From TrEMBL:
Superkingdom of the source species: Bacteria
UniProt keyword list: Signal
Protein name: 6-bladed beta-propeller
Source organism: Bacteroides acidifaciens
Signal peptide limits: 1-25
Length: 329
C-alpha cells in the first residue's frame, strides 16, 4: 500500500512539473536593466499622397513593395504599392464567402522572410505568396489546425513554423509546425485577472527565425524566448516604470509599449509620447539598445524598411490621403 502511494505521489509530482515547467523557467532568468539609448533623434513626417481611398490597419514592407490591409473596405481589402514611387500595383480582395474572398478581415502575418503570408480567406487558412519583379503569385495554401478559435499576432518563422498569441482567450503563446500541422510548443504566461485586455502581463508578440520577442503593454519589460525550445533566455526591464492599470478605463490606464515590429537586424517598439507623436525604440536581438526616435505623429500602423532606413506609417486623423514617411538614416 505504501509503495502504491509513493508511486501516485511521484506521478502527481511529474504532472505538476510538466504543467508548470515553462512558468518556473521564466522565473529563473534574471532581469537586466534596459540600456540607455546611444542615439536619440527627432523626425517630422513627410506626407505621401496617393489616389486610393483607404483606412489601413496593417502595413508590411517586402522587397521594395508596401502592402496594406484595410478591413473597413469590403471591396478592396489588400493594396500593393511599389517603392519608392508609391505606384499602386494592386488593389482588391473582396469580403465574402466565395473562392479567394475574405471571410474575415485579412491580416499580413509577420515574418522576416521575403514571402508574403496573408490570413483571413477563412479563419483556418493562410496563403503564401512569392514576389518576383513586384508580381505576387500564390505558392501554397496552409490549413491551420487551430480550428476552434481565433488567434492574434501571427508570425511565420523559417517558412515552416507559425507562432501566435492565444489572446483574447488566454495570454499564452503557441508554436505550430506547418509541415506536420501539430502544436509543438507553448509558452505559459500567467493571467492575473479576468479582464485580459487590462491584465498586467498582456503584451505584443513578434519573432525572427531564432527568437520570440514579447513586449509588455503596461510595464516596461521585454522577454526573449528561443524559438527552438520556447524557453525564456533573456528579460529586459525598466524598474522605474510602475504599471498603472484602471480596469475598464482605457483613458486612465498607462500604456508603455503599443506595437512591435521585427526586422532582419533589429526589432522596433512603438511607445506613447504624451498627447502627440510617439517614440520608436530600436533594439538588436542581443537585447542592446540601438536608437530612440521621436516622431511628430502617432503611427496607428507602421513598418520599417531597414535597407533604406525608412519608417512607413499611417494615421488617418492627421493625414488620411496617404502615408507618413520618416527617413531615419
Amino acid at each position: 500500500m505504501l509503495k502504491n502511494k509513493i508511486c501516485l505521489l511521484l506521478i502527481y509530482t511529474l504532472i505538476i512539473i510538466a504543467c508548470s515547467g515553462q512558468t518556473c523557467a521564466q522565473r529563473q532568468v534574471s532581469s537586466l536593466e534596459i540600456e540607455p539609448f546611444p542615439v536619440k533623434k527627432t523626425f517630422c513626417a513627410e506626407k505621401i499622397r496617393v489616389n486610393e481611398i483607404f483606412s489601413p490597419d496593417g502595413i508590411v514592407v517586402k522587397k521594395g513593395n508596401l502592402f496594406v490591409t484595410d478591413s473597413r473596405n469590403n471591396d478592396a481589402m489588400i493594396y500593393q504599392y511599389s517603392l519608392p514611387g508609391f505606384h499602386c500595383i494592386y488593389q482588391g480582395g473582396v469580403k465574402g464567402g466565395g473562392k479567394d474572398e475574405f471571410q474575415i478581415s485579412p491580416t499580413l502575418c509577420k515574418t522576416v522572410s521575403d514571402k508574403v503570408y496573408i490570413w483571413g480567406y477563412t479563419p483556418f487558412l493562410i496563403k503564401c505568396f512569392i514576389l518576383d519583379n513586384n508580381h505576387m503569385s500564390l505558392e501554397e495554401e496552409i490549413k491551420l489546425p487551430i480550428s476552434d478559435r481565433i488567434v492574434n499576432f501571427m508570425n511565420v518563422v523559417n517558412d515552416s513554423l507559425l507562432i501566435y498569441s492565444t489572446f483574447p482567450y488566454k495570454l499564452n503563446i503557441e508554436k505550430v509546425n506547418l509541415n506536420t500541422m501539430q502544436i509543438t510548443g507553448q509558452i505559459l504566461i500567467e493571467q492575473k485577472q479576468k479582464e485580459l485586455f487590462f491584465d498586467e502581463n498582456r503584451g505584443y508578440l513578434a519573432a525572427n527565425d531564432s527568437l520570440i520577442i514579447y513586449a509588455y503593454t503596461y510595464k516596461k519589460q521585454i522577454d526573449f524566448y528561443r524559438v527552438s525550445d520556447m524557453k525564456l533566455c533573456k528579460r529586459l526591464v525598466d524598474k522605474t516604470v510602475v504599471p498603472h492599470i484602471i480596469v475598464n478605463n482605457v483613458k486612465e490606464s498607462k500604456f508603455c509599449q503599443r506595437e512591435l515590429v521585427t526586422g532582419k537586424r533589429y526589432f522596433y517598439i512603438r511607445c506613447p509620447k504624451g498627447e502627440k507623436g510617439c517614440f520608436i525604440e530600436v533594439f538588436d536581438y542581443s537585447g542592446h539598445s540601438v536608437a530612440k526616435y521621436e516622431l511628430d505623429v502617432l503611427l496607428y500602423a507602421f513598418d520599417v524598411d531597414e535597407e533604406n532606413g525608412i519608417i512607413y506609417g499611417y494615421n488617418g486623423d492627421v493625414f488620411e490621403d496617404g502615408f507618413l514617411k520618416y527617413t531615419i538614416l
